[in-house]
Every structure is written in C-alpha cells, then in structure tokens.
Predict the structure.
Amino acid sequence: MAQRIEGDAARFRGIVRGKIKEQLKGYISTGEMIGKKGRDLVSIPLPQITLPQFRYGSKQAGGVGQGPGDVGDPLSGDPSRGKAGSESGEHILEVDVSLDELAALLGEELELPKVEPRGKKNITQQVDKYTGIATTGPESLRHFKRTYKQALRRQVLSGDYNAQDPKIVPIREDTRYRSWNPVLLPEANAVIIYAMDVSGSMGDEQKELVRITAFWIDTWLRSQYKDVTQCYVIHDAKAREVDEHTFYHTREGGGTKISSAYSVMNNIIDERFSPADWNIYAFHFSDGDNWEEDNDSCTDLLENQILPKVNQFCYGQVTSYWGSGQYLTDLYDYFEENDKVVTSEINSRDDVLKAIKDFLGKGR
C-alpha cells in the first residue's frame, strides 16, 4: 500500500512539474512567485490541473440528495433571481515547490550551463567518510578483518586459543562494522552585488523589472553554490550600500553619476570579498541616462578595477520615459570584445526572460 501511495504521489509531482514548466515563461514575466517566497519553498498557483476523481456508472441511483428538485434550484428564496450555470469554474491549486527544483526548471527552460566556480574557502560541505569502526551496524558493512582480530584477542585472553589447532570462531560480540564520520570539505562560495540607479527617472515599474530579474538570478546561483551572499548599492549622483528593502523601495532625485556606484562596488569587493576565495557577480541596472562626462570614469573603473576581480559583470538597462538609454550603447561599444561584460535591454516584462538568458547563459 505504501509503495502504491508513493507511486501515485510521484506521478502527481510529475504532473505538477510539467504544469509549472509549461507556464514558466508566464511566471518569469509576471513575477507571480516572488511575493510568496519562503525560506526554502515557493507557493505556485496552478490553474486547470487535472486531479484524480471518482466517476460513477449509470446504475448508481438513490441515496442522499435524491429528493425533488432540479440541479441549480436554490434552497430558499426566489428561484427567478438566478439559475445555476452549466460550465465548470476554473480551479486554482496552490503547490509548494523547492527553490532547487525551480532552479532546475529554469535551467532546462533556458538551457543554462552549469556554473564553473572558483575559490574554495569559508563555505564547507559535510560529507560522510568510512573512517571508523563500530560494534553495531548493517551486515553489508561488516569488517571481516577487525572481526577476526577481535575474536582472536578474546580467545587468547580467555585461554581458549590453541596454537597447535588455531581455530578462530567469532561470536556476536566480536563483530565489528565500518562506520562513518562527518568530514568538512571546502566548497566554493559566491557573492552577488546589485547596483541600481534610483534617480528620479527610475519609477516603480522599472524597479519591479529589476526585482523580478534579481529573483531569478538569485534562484539560479543559489542552486550552483551552497551559500550566496547579496550586497545592494543604490545611486543617483552619489552611491551608498543599503539593505534589500531599501534597495527596492528608495526613490531619490537628482542627476546620475554611475561611476559612484562602481566605486562603492569596488570597495565592497576589496574590503570583504577576496577574488581568490569568492565567486563575484556584479549586476547594475539603470535607465541609461548618465552624466556624459562620467562615462570615461565608468569604463576606467570597470576595466582596471572591477573586471579583473569578478566572474562576470552584467548591465541591465530598463526603459523609462525620462532615460536617454545611451549608456548601454557606450558600454557595449567599449567592451564588445570582453566576454566578462554582458549587457541586456529590458524594455518590458516580456524581456525579462531574454535578460536572464543573457546574464546566466555563459556559465561563468
């Protein structure tokens, strides 16, 4: 019975997984799951999912509810006020999906390559190695040599051992088993540094595009590393490091000086994240409206400071009514031959999928 239930559950999970994958593009563009993100699970609404149901034959008659009246008749009140509809309603089922499985679906949908990490410090992975001996355990782990040595020791100490007729007969108390001990192995770690323009031209819609894109970046990179640290930088003409809530909800004014954000990002790397030990991913989002005289400082900081330290630098340009959008063209022209620099234009929610593919498609 238990095996049958497990088999049914596995088939149902397969149905759910297929439904999620079928509609993943819609989830990515609408941000349906972001607000429901828990510690390890995401709740996803799945419409029109096929569920098992009982179906009765024509001989079924009588029983509870078989009195006078037709289907749709109200129990009380004026029957003329309304009639029952003939069509079934759309049923919504909420299912919980782990972030790891969600990342796997994202990787399949976008054909993302596995990340090649660098750095082996601070983050550890616990594995079990058979380095010990125990007096209990499964027969498959019985240690024959240790068992017979223990039997020989017991027989010698008790005087039962005959050197002229050396027979060693282990008893239950002599049996020894291989046992495991946890071993901590170093594992690669990663930090994501997000920077965003919060000048007056960046509205709520632009920030929501950034939020959706960042959610999927986090989901994928967390599946590639045991632990991921995030840092957040906001800027207009000046830049500063903030927490996640401030990052997505701050609205400031003034001009735009992108080099100020790159300086803060570079300081964060130098002070807390050594490139020898960390996989560093830098993402910058803006509407592309930068003070023209600042462009040379931006390219200098990227080329000589940030790029030598990071796995990848990504620039996402979100369209706004007030932004000129020129910065993306300048950045692309200058770093066209540098595969560490990835740029993508996000004009609407429909472009989020392409941006994620652009940013994560190199497997760096």
